[in-house]
Amino acid sequence: MKLRFAADGIEVADGLFWLDATKPKALGVISHAHGDHSGRHETIVCTRETGAFHRQRSGHRGKYIELSFGEPWRVGDVEIVLWSAGHILGSAMVEMRGPEGTTLYTGDFRMSGGLTCPPAHPVPADALITEATFGVPQHRHPPADESRAELVQFARDCLDGGRTPIFMAYALGKGQEVLAALTQAGIPVAAHGSIWNLLRPYRDAGVRFPGGRRLSRNGSRQCAVIAPPRWADSAPVRGTGEVSVCAITGWGNMAQRPGIDKTIVLSDHADYDQLVQLVTAVAPKHVYTLHGYAKEFAEDLRQRGFNAEAVPGHSGPADGEIPGMFKPRGSGR
Ligand SMILES: [Zn+2]
C-alpha cells in the first residue's frame, strides 16, 4: 500500500484518504479523539465514541462515518476495518486491505486496555505502522491494577490526614480512568469540568463512576480532585486547605518535579513489552515506527529479525505523555 508520511499525518494511496491528519482533508480516518490525531475533515471515518468526542471537543460539522470494530468499509480498492486499540475509549487500530496486501496502523495503543476501554485487538498484517512512545526496555510499567491500588491508597491516606489529594490527569482518557479507579473503590471524587463533560460516551459504554461528581466553582471538600495539569493550580482545584498533588504518567521518575508530591506510573500507551508483544502478534513483513523512541525501537526490532524502519521526522513525544507536561509551579509555561 502506498504510504506517504507527511508532517500532518499519513497519506494513503496517493490521497485516497489520510490517517490521523491534523489538517483538514477530504477523507480522514481518525484513530482516536486526541487532538494530535484528529483534524476537521470533510468526511471522517472513526468509531462511534471517537465521533462523539470529536464533535463535542471540536464543534466540527463534517460528515462522520462511524464504524463498529470489525465492520469493513470500502473506499476505492481499499477496505478499511477498525479494531480496538486499548488506548482510550473509542480508540482504534486501522486495518487497510488492498490489492498489494494488508497494512495495520496502531494510532496510539495499549494491549491491556483499562477500566474505561477494552483491550487492543491487533490483527496479522503484511505491514505495520506502530507508535513507539515507550520503545526502550527502560520503560516497563507496573501492572495497572497495582497502580490503581496505589491511587486509591494515596487518596485514602490524604483524606485521612485532612488533605485534599489532587490527581493530575489529562482531560480525555486518563482523567476518566482515574475517576473510574477511585469511585469504583468508594473514594469520593470531584472531577474538573473538562473531564466530567466527556462522561456520556463512557456511561453509554457501561463504565460506572459511582459517587463521582463535577468539581464546583467553589471547590469541593473532603473528596479527591482530578484535573488536567493545566488546571492544577486553579482556585477551584486547590481549594483553601492543605493539598497533596499526584502526577499520573507513564514516564515515572521523569515527573518528579517541584510541586508534585507523588508520581504514580499509569499510562494509556503500550510500554516496551507491550510494543514487542504487538509486533509479535501482527507478524509483519515490514514495520514503520513513529513517535517517542521510534529510532531505538526500530533498531531493537531489526535485532529481533524484523524489517523495521523509523519514519524520519516522526520521533518525539506523543499526546499526553510528554515528559514536560508536569511543569514546576510558577514556571509560567
Ligand atoms: Zn492518544
Describe the 3D structure.
This protein is of the alpha/beta class and 333 residues long. It folds into two domains: 3-139 and 269-325, Metallo-beta-lactamase, Chain A (4-Layer Sandwich); 144-265, Rossmann fold (3-Layer(aba) Sandwich), CATH 3.40.50.12650. 22% of the residues lie in helices and 26% in strands. It has helices at 48-58, 144-160, 174-183, 193-196, 200-204, 235-238, 272-282, 294-303, and strands at 3-6, 9-12, 17-19, 27-29, 43-47, 63-67, 73-75, 78-84, 92-98, 101-105, 127-131, 164-168, 189-191, 212-214, 224-227, 243-249, 262-265, 286-290, 308-310. The strands form three sheets. It has a seven-stranded mixed β-sheet with strand order 7-8-9-10-11-18-19, with helices on one face. Strands 1-2-3-4-5-6 form a six-stranded mixed β-sheet. The chain has a six-stranded parallel β-sheet with strand order 14-13-15-12-16-17. Helix 1 links the parallel strand 5 and strand 6. The protein is globular. The model is unreliable at 319-333 (pLDDT under 50). Zinc ion binds next to loops.
